[in-house]
């Protein structure tokens, strides 16, 4: 099985799983929108937050662009291009930032990457905070465009800048994106190192622990995956994707009872989620009547019985 399946590129659409994983069929299924993938809305929200965090001077035209970017990205892109035509010095950074965010919201990823790179290059070399965020946004856009190698080249200096200013949240975010890029270029061991860096920078990031568990499981390191998914569950006990992954890990560890309990918890805590759809399919293959409410309280799979 190609390691590319470990971490899907940004926004690749994958259908829900329909075949129950087993110890003899570990790669027969994919989770809905594979949980390693960053979802469309999450990435858009992150870009918007990073844009707000870039400390830049306010020019009237580019400020208007940022105010309009969510409601009218096309108009925002026009405003940003107009601002760039007349902008000098650091004003070019804000206008380029706005243009990149607007183009991202339009899914014009190659153009967005170029806009973010130009904005980063226009920033003061000593402004490591702005350069880190703009570089991270450029790398994220490259991932969205399916250009993993280009993304890694952009994310490396962004990570350095983020560490210089001590921004642990951004360091973790960049490390997660680097992990996605590294798996896409078939370097899963390096991806595991990047995920470890994300966990070290932000130990309470449940997503980092979840992604680590999924990668470990895909590498057939089930004991490690079990420890990582338990940590993820302790940080976000109601997250349906964590419950779904916990069940997959338990099933591959020949702990069918724990898998059933985890999948039942997904259906109980998040019945309308895509994870619940997959959990229901898995439970049906175990012969569980999913139309009858579970009698046991939700819980994440415990350590596999040996």
CATH architecture assignment of the largest domain: Alpha Horseshoe
The beta-strand count equals: 0
Structural class: mainly alpha
Characterize the quaternary organization of these chains: single chain
Output the CATH topology of the largest domain.
Serine Threonine Protein Phosphatase 5, Tetratricopeptide repeat
Structure explained in plain terms:
- By secondary structure, this protein is mainly alpha-helical.
- The model is unreliable at 1-18, 23-40, 55-64 and 293-306 (pLDDT under 50).
- The radius of gyration is 21 Å and the shape is elongated.
- The relative contact order is 0.11.
- The chain has 2 domains: 40-170, Serine Threonine Protein Phosphatase 5, Tetratricopeptide repeat, CATH 1.25.40; 222-306, no CATH class.
- It is built from 14 helices and no strands.
- It starts with 39 loop residues before the first helix and ends in a 21-residue tail after the last helix.
């Amino acid at each position: 099985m190609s390691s590319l399946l470990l971490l899907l590129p940004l926004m690749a659409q994958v259908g829900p799983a329909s075949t129950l994983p087993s110890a003899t069929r570990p790669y027969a299924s994919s989770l809905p929108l594979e949980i390693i993938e960053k979802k469309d809305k999450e990435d858009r929200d992150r870009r918007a937050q990073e844009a707000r965090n870039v400390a830049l001077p306010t020019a009237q035209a580019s400020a208007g662009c940022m105010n309009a970017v969510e409601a009218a990205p096309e108009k925002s892109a026009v405003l940003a291009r107009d601002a760039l035509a007349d902008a000098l010095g650091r004003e070019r950074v804000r206008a380029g930032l706005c243009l990149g965010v607007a183009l991202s919201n339009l899914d014009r990823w190659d153009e967005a990457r170029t806009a973010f790179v130009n904005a980063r290059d226009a920033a003061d070399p000593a402004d490591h905070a702005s350069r880190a965020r703009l570089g991270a946004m450029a790398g994220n856009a490259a991932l969205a465009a399916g250009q993993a190698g280009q993304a890694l080249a952009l994310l490396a200096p962004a990570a350095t800048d983020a560490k210089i200013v001590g921004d642990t949240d951004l360091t973790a975010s960049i490390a997660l994106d680097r992990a996605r890029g590294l798996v896409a270029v078939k370097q899963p061991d390096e991806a595991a190192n990047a995920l470890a860096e994300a966990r070290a920078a932000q130990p309470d990031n449940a997503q980092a622990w979840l992604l680590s568990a999924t990668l470990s499981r895909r590498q057939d390191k089930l004991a490690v995956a079990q420890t990582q998914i338990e940590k993820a569950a302790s940080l976000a006990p109601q997250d349906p994707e964590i419950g779904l992954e916990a069940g997959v890990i338990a099933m591959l560890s020949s702990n069918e009872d724990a898998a059933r309990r985890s999948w039942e918890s997904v259906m109980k805590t998040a019945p309308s989620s895509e994870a619940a759809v997959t959990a229901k399919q898995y439970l049906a293959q175990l012969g569980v009547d999913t139309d009858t409410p579970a009698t046991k309280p939700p819980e994440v799979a415990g350590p596999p019985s040996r």
